[in-house]
Amino acid sequence: MKAITYQGVKDVRVKEVKDPKIEKPDDLIIKVTSTAICGSDLHLIHGLVPNMPKDYILGHETMGIVEEVGPEVRDLKKGDRVVVPFRWPVVIAGTVSMICTVPAITQIPMEK
Amino acid sequence: MYSSCDNSNPHGEVGGIFGYSETFGGYAGGQAEYLRVPYANVGPVKVPEEMSDEQALFLTDVLPTSYWGNLICGVKEGATVTVLGCGPIGLMAQKFAWLLGAERVIAVDYIDYRLEHAKKHNKVEVINFEEHDNTGRYIKEITKGGTDVVIDCVGMDGKMTIVEMLETAMLLQGGAMSAIPMAAQAVRKNGTVGLVGVYGMRYNQFPLGDFFARGITLKMGQCPATAYVRHLMKLVQEGKIDPTDIITHKLKLEEGQHAYEIFDQKQDDCIKVVLKP
């Protein structure tokens, strides 16, 4: 597939890279329909964030259509259209379960 | 505490982020034809058919971050708010300030077309910081003591002083910090400053004494985006907030290199680029 990759400071390139695949049972793969560049992506290409490997795929504002789901994905299926928040609430254990009652993984506190 | 996840990032104190270096978990990013989404039971949110991509896409980051910036600062009915920065986050933070009931919203930047955009679409007072010797003090004057809240939507990639440039190059400074002393002056005594723009590492000359002397509360961090996606989706659907005016460019994924250039160099009046694979 094509992807925007980091090549070095002020150097990004669209390259052919390997397609992602399901690695864990609760992964899913989306076919991207829209993605955006964030101001914080510029921090990366300005060299302000360490540990950026060459050919690393950029981008954290993405949405698309579910293409494939792992066996433990519960509510989403192939064909669903989704937005993917730039970071995800991993509430499997630990800190978050202190603020929302267990099983925390099913809960996303929302504003009224 | 979503953004402080202990599990998704074995490399650091912050939770994992797509496409944001090994330090942030090493997950491949989404500027691609396909994206692997880990922890799919808690991250992705279904989008209703009637919403366009352009309405939904910014639920990933821009909308939650700009909204949360207002929330952590306690913006409410009657508040006076200064927003530093008129990039995508700053522009949306201005809209949310009005939505939450602010009575005065002041926007600061140095890029004219972005200030124009803020004035036209968000009906805010605009200040070009290059036209003032001390913009923080200027805001303090025109607001008779400062605004209740200052939201810094600039972060470490703001306009650097020569000293900051040199220090950053020598890894002695984590980038620009000019928005912070400005915020420390523009906020009223006992007011709140929120840092939504991203900062890294350590900073010299941090105006701690200004914050201390004026009793200012300082809040900051990465927004726990997922917590707000559904609520904000509703606001977009109801027409209470419209994120689409910040999109200045729709390009093909193949044009990614050009897209980064115009966004980085602020060419062609670029505010936000959406890429279509």
Describe this structure in words.
- Chain A has 112 residues and is mainly beta.
- Chain A has one domain (2-106): Medium-chain alcohol dehydrogenases, catalytic domain (Quinone Oxidoreductase, Chain A, domain 1).
- In chain A, 6% of the residues lie in helices and 33% in strands.
- Chain A is built from 1 helix and 6 strands; from the N terminus they run βββαβββ.
- A 3-stranded antiparallel sheet of chain A has the order 2-1-4, with no helix packed on it. In chain A, strands 3-5-6 form a 3-stranded antiparallel sheet, with no helix packed on it.
- The longest helix of chain A has 7 residues, at 39-45.
- Chain A is elongated and about 40 Å long.
- The model of chain A is unreliable at 90-112 (pLDDT under 50).
- Chain B has 277 residues and is an alpha/beta fold.
- Chain B folds into 2 domains: 1-44, no CATH class; 57-220, NAD(P)-binding Rossmann-like Domain (Rossmann fold).
- Helices cover 31% and strands 18% of the residues of chain B.
- Chain B contains 10 helices and 10 strands.
- Chain B has helices at 53-56, 62-72, 88-99, 112-122, 135-142, 162-169, 179-186, 208-213, 229-237, 256-264, and strands at 34-37, 45-46, 80-84, 104-109, 125-128, 147-152, 187-195, 217-220, 247-252, 272-276.
- In chain B, the strands form 2 sheets. Chain B has a 6-stranded parallel sheet, sandwiched between helices. In chain B, strands 9-10 form a two-stranded parallel sheet.
- In chain B, helix 2 packs across helix 3 (88-99) and helix 5 (135-142) packs parallel to helix 7 (179-186).
- The mean pLDDT of chain B is 91.
- At the A-B interface, strand 1, strand 2, strand 3, helix 1 and strand 4 of A face strand 1, strand 2, helix 1, helix 9 and helix 10 of B.
- Strand 3 (28-36) of chain A pairs antiparallel with strand 1 of chain B, so a sheet runs across the interface.
Strand adjacency order, main sheet of chain B: 5-4-3-6-7-8
The fold-level CATH name of the largest domain in chain B is: Rossmann fold
The parts of chain A where pLDDT drops under 50 for at least 5 residues are: 90-112
Give me the number of helical elements of chain B: 10
- The CA-CA distance between the termini of chain B, in Å, is 33 Å
Oligomer: heterodimer
At the fold tier of CATH, the topology name of chain A is Quinone Oxidoreductase, Chain A, domain 1
- Which percent bin holds the helix content of chain A? under 10%
The side-by-side strand order for the widest beta sheet of chain A comes to 2-1-4
Q: Which second-level CATH architecture of the largest domain in chain B applies?
A: 3-Layer(aba) Sandwich
